[in-house]
Amino acid sequence: MAKKSRAKAIYVLNGPNLNLLGTREPDVYGRTTLSDIGDMTAARAQSHGYDVVFSQSNHEGELVEWIHEAREAAAGIIINAGAYTHTSIAIHDALRALSCPIVEVHLSNTFAREEFRHHSYISPVASGVIVGFGANSYLLAVDAVASLIEEAAI
Ligand code: CA2
């Protein structure tokens, strides 16, 4: 029998330009669209008994607002902040205010790319980081966040 869904969802937040996935730069980001990734993560989260709130924005302030919402509504958060990863103190500060597990995720191996992608403002406030596995990074992140939520509940 399927596990019953818990009240709180896993928030999966995506930053700027990730809406373009699957349309350009397939050599770097693959051919899977963000909508496909949304479906895959929802199915994986369901297998752990969680619903997913999956969102994307090109606007830093909107991402900050969703992180504030997650303070009450999320059991855990997965975030691919896109280029804001490397620039945003606002997203760093918003994440600091969360008490639930935070998993930072990237499609590409940012450490094998340009130097400006090597620094992340998200990593110091994340429980863990998953980079470089393409769309599969999101599935690994769901497994990771689900186990962190379970551990915290013990
Ligand atoms: O590898 C990742 O997941 C990134 O977060 C993707 C960001 C990049 O700025 C980070 O350094 C690493 C960029 C997302 C833009 O995605 C596009 C997809 C297709 C075409 C153009 C951009």
Automatic annotation (TrEMBL):
Catalytic residue positions: 29 (proton acceptor), 106 (proton donor)
Pathway where this protein functions: Metabolic intermediate biosynthesis; chorismate biosynthesis; chorismate from D-erythrose 4-phosphate and phosphoenolpyruvate: step 3/7
EC number in record: 4.2.1.10
UniProt-listed GO biological process terms: amino acid biosynthetic process; aromatic amino acid family biosynthetic process; chorismate biosynthetic process; quinate catabolic process
Listed GO MF terms: 3-dehydroquinate dehydratase activity
Superkingdom assignment: Bacteria
Pfam family, one: DHquinase_II
Catalytic activity of the protein: 3-dehydroquinate = 3-dehydroshikimate + H2O
UniProt site (Transition state stabilizer): 24
Alphabetically ordered keywords of this record: Amino-acid biosynthesis, Aromatic amino acid biosynthesis, Lyase
Main function: Catalyzes a trans-dehydration via an enolate intermediate.
Family: Belongs to the type-II 3-dehydroquinase family.
UniProt cross-references to PANTHER family, sorted A to Z: CATABOLIC 3-DEHYDROQUINASE (PTHR21272)
Protein's recorded name: 3-dehydroquinate dehydratase
Gene for this chain: aroQ
